[in-house]
Amino acid sequence: MTRPGAHRRGFVEALNRTFRHWSLLPAVLVFALLTAYPIVNLLRMAVSTVEFKDGSEIWSFTPQRNWSQLLADTALAPVVVNTLVFVVVAVAIEMVAGLALALLIGGLTRGKALLRTLMIIPILVPPVAIGSMFKLMFNHDFGVFNQLLGYVGIAPVSWLGSTSLALLSVIIVDVWHWVPFVFLILFAAVEGLPKEVLEAARVDGATRGQLLRRVTLPLLMPALTVALVFRAILAFKTFDEVYLLTGGGPGTSSELLSLHLYKVFFEQNQLGYGALLSVFTITGVLSLLTFARWLTRRWALR
Amino acid sequence: MAARGHTRGSPALGPVGERVASVSIRHVDKAYGSTVVIKGIELEVADGEFVVLVGASGCGKSTLLRMIAGLEPISAGEIAIGGQRVNELEPRERDIAMVFQSYALYPHLNVRSNLAFSLELRNTPAAEIEAKCRQTAGVLDLAQLLERFPRQLSGGQRQRVAMGRAIVRQPRVFLFDEPLSNLDAKLRIAMRTEIRALHQRLSATSIYVTHDQVEAMTMADRMVVMNDGRIEQIGAPLDVYDRPHTLYVARFIGAPSINVLECKVEGEGAHASLRTRGGQRVALPGFVEPGHAVSAALRPEHLAIAAGGSLHGTVSVVEHLGHETYVYVDTADGRLCVLAERNLRLPPGAPVSLAPAVQGLHLFDAASGQRIEAGEARR
Amino acid sequence: MIKLSAASRAAFLGWLMLGAAMVVVVGPFIWIAVASFKHPIAILSGTWSFTPTLDNYTDVLLSKRSDFLAGVRNSLIVATVSTAIALVVGTLAAYSLHRFAWARWVTLGFLGWTLAFHMIPVLTLVGPWYLAFKQLGLYDTRLALILTHVSVNLPMAVWLMMSFFRDIPPEIEQAALVDGCHPLSAFWYVVLPLVVPGLIAAGVLAFVFSWNEFSIALNLVSQTNATVPVVVAKFAQDYEIQHGQMAAASILATIPALVLMVFGQRFIVQGLTMGSVK
Asked: Could you tell me the pTM of the whole model?
């Protein structure tokens, strides 16, 4: 056993023995430094005011000021309402459409692979590009939507410029973006349904409607629940498309939570208030998540 | 698990009654695109008969069953149940019940709901559903399990629920698609007798698919041996066993497998005999024209270890099964299996001679595999 | 007269809906692609017959006013590096959690944290990140983007690789150990080759999501280090909206996704669906 060899062997031995630990360490470090630490900072910021003087930060402890800023934020209530409406409506449409597509395409004998490939496209396109694409399509003067309306004799509509339609336009874009996602999850589930159970139901006398209601849908419940929970919680993160499409306007008619956070942080530069808002948002989302998981667990035990 | 009497008396679940439940399969083909997988099936199943479709994997027996059920479209020919053509009918319109290999129980429903499912689909009154479920559960010893879910049941229990689901509907025809394949050996034997007893009580027409020739032999009124999409032979088990029509049937039915010797007819008249490829001699049971290439088949029970026999070899392996003993002998024509005396002990390598029983000799044309009746003049 | 059975009618309706779905999915791209080849006047008048031009594309790619190519370079660097890091860190972590029986609180805590972090709006953290990076002098650097992108993509990488690891029969790893392999060697020589599809799936998804990432890039870097989405947004934000360039930029920004989709389709679907069904 020569000395250099012993060193190398010893090193490799040490690596092997500690593999268990150093394999998990990098991830833990990343999360600790880049997520846990910022969240702690967030809590600090939520009760402070941060000002920049001559390139350095000045922190002052001002919980009341941040809180009163929250109360004085007239845009907050409409934003929350918008976000809730957005999440409920968009997710509902996406679930129904995604399920319908999954069942339809699942029933095909040919072309499934091609259709599935097409369905991936909206998920991979940069949301910013989706926003800019639809911004062009929603254009009042030359956009394709108003063109189509013109073909059936309806006057051009201001999709992005009217307070009543702006949120709807955002919902339309979100639906286009995310129905394929719901579809992929449900399609995988539909493909995974036990064929013989469905055949047994057909032999037992089930019509197509009865088969769907009494066997297919109950068996799809786990996947439906996952898709719903996932999509609903992720819907709160929507930012890119809204930023591009309307910037929250006109007024605050299409402003969603993430966009509002952005404005508070980076347009109004109210870091303290923004942090407070962030803390509330995070708490809200996590409570929803916990509630949803509790719900799915209860369902799974039935 | 001992074979308990799962089938108990219950008057309301007696014979199906006057509904004629014969099944006719005429000129049926099945093709996927241009590939023909089933060719020219002709089969008549009488009312109340237990018919077993048996064959190796891929022979088309399950496909045929599924065509009877309506789960696969029929490419050509006609299938009729009770005299009525069913080619265009959906499965639910054919008044059949099917027991699947994987049992296919509804995982989201408990046992009671599984049994009641088909009745609920037809809007049967709740009282009647309850009564029928209770009876069926009683017959199959499922009363304790009604509230359980399929995932909480053992394989044997699931199998009984699957059968219960079929019975509760009192259909014209029962279809079984290898229902015992997923059970362990002892359970399989127990369930075999249960299914048979159930059939005798219900007297319902049953078509049963299996790859296990023992199941076929023990359960069938008539067996249908299938190979490569065609029927090789139809007949009662013992008839098929004693007089296989083709070499394939002879090989497939019977365990241990029949011994096959490739031979040529040599000699003329009274001196004619079979000379095997290994150079050994077997006596002919009758006239077969000289020079004919023949596959001679002998079941283990038609070979005996006796001095002076025409076949010679050395002992390879001796298997004591308890009630029987099989001796495997290496000869110039390969390894032959002989049913020997129960207490026989022979060391490996011991030289033995075997005497074939001429009356148990089956002859098949070496090229076509078709049975040759010795003594008939062949061109 | 052809009598359509119920099954045929249902099939026809199904095909109809599918045709509609296809139009809806692919339609926008076609419309935008067409617009990207139009002169500004043609766009505004909304005609279908026009003389195609490459001006929009040349303007986006080559003109001095445009940062598109610089954006592509930045996006490539950030996406490649962050994907590589996320893959390495994520795969190691996933294997560690899967193979080395950590205490329940460790596994649940780690995975729960990744799930929670995946769910909260990214913008809630951009604020503290902004401050932190400014303090570290990393504001407006590609490194800042790389680090944040790694943390954003890590949950997906871990979850995805864990499901792939779970699909490997334990007997294979046990056989390697019995044969005398150390855990690290078993991982490197036996397990890793078996999860290559997972690596590809996670890699493709991480790359695409990093490429597409907007909210962080918008706020943590200035124009010099802008990524493609930020550059595209600029086209839509400018005072005089350049519609043709906007269309061209949108199409160009989508190309990586389409390319990866052609090559990695199978893996992508696996990744997207497995990540959620856990």
From this structure: 0.82
